[in-house]
Amino acid sequence: MSVKTGLIADIGATNARFALCGADGVYRDEKVYKCTAYPGLAAAAQAYLAERGNPAVHAGAIAVAGPVIGDIVAMTNHPWTFSVEETRLALGLSYLQVMNDFEAVALGVPHLAPDMVRPVGPATAPVPNGQIGIIGPGTGLGVASLIWTGDHYMPVPGEGGHVTAAARTQREFDVLVTLKSKYRHVSAERVCSGKGLVNIYDALRILDSRGDLPDRSAEEISKAALDESDALCIESLDIMLDFMGNVARNIALTLGTFGGIYIAGGICLQLGEAFFTSGFRENFEGDGRYVDYLKKIPTFLILHPFIALVGLSNTLSRNLR
């Protein structure tokens, strides 16, 4: 009997990550491309397959940073728009599943090995089969959850990154008011992502009358914060991670995530120890009536660099058996 091969891909606003997988759910030959190097998803996938020697690929599962409703998919922070059916035909697949990128991340969480997560704050044990929340700041902000059905976890995708941003301090409130002049709606993503870090820095420059400071990218702000070379960059990163704690707390309270909150996305991994000493956990627990409730909910940083590919490969493997 011939061995079937599947194509999986995690498409973000900046990077497109491709890999192959088999019926065993194990992925291989992962490769990362810049999205801007290709006119569309099909072209990027074809380039990846050509580099692999154009293997016979039976089925595909692709995660994209944006809502997936119907055949036409438009990414939120990147100009790629594509038809699922046309992409399936262009790649010669008998089956193609497209899902939100954080649905794929959620699908990967139950398959994480213990050494692929690290507690943030107290190492509280998660409640077995408890609800799980997933949040991840990257170019944008991804949010999803996992609900126990009785014999397995079911992912619940959504667009929680676009809920209204909430402030806990006067400084955070002033940042949101300043950003309101730029955006009709200041969502969580506007202050809790790579773009959000730039927004906060720009807002603080206005609030503090620091027009002398240069424009900076998210990478430049993070670097200056981590090497402690610029006080406004340090504050910008601190505020972003405080906002992230606010968002994670709202998810935990809404869903009762005693199975834990899992943090994905490249930003927190790249911060290293600075993330673990940040105000994220303190803001997550807050100072209201539900502090004791929130103290019982563990938070974890996902260390796996390709967690969405883990979810996609395990999902697609069923179609390859």
Q: What does this entry look like structurally?
A:
- The longest helix is centred in the last third of the chain and has 25 residues, at 231-255.
- α4 (170-180) packs across α5 (194-207).
- The protein is built from 12 helices and 13 strands.
- 45% of the residues are buried.
- It has a 6-stranded mixed beta sheet, with helices on both faces. It has a 5-stranded mixed beta sheet with strand order 3-2-1-4-7, sandwiched between helices.
- By secondary structure, the protein is of the alpha/beta class.
- The model has no long low-confidence stretch (mean pLDDT 95).
When the domains are counted, the total is: 2
Radius of gyration: 20 Å
Structural class: alpha/beta
Strand order of the largest sheet: 8-13-12-9-10-11
Q: What is the 3D shape?
A: globular
> What is the CATH architecture annotation of the largest domain?
3-Layer(aba) Sandwich
Number of strands: 13
Q: What characterizes the major β-sheet?
A: 6 strands, mixed
Distance between the termini: 11 Å
Q: Report mean pLDDT, rounded to a whole number.
A: 95
Q: What's the CATH topology label of the largest domain?
A: Hexokinase, domain 1
Low-confidence spans: none
Elements, N to C (H/E): EEEHEEEHEHEEEEHHHHEHHHHEH
CATH top level label of the largest domain? Alpha Beta
Helix content: 25-40%
DSSP summary: helix tally: 12
Strand content: 15-25%
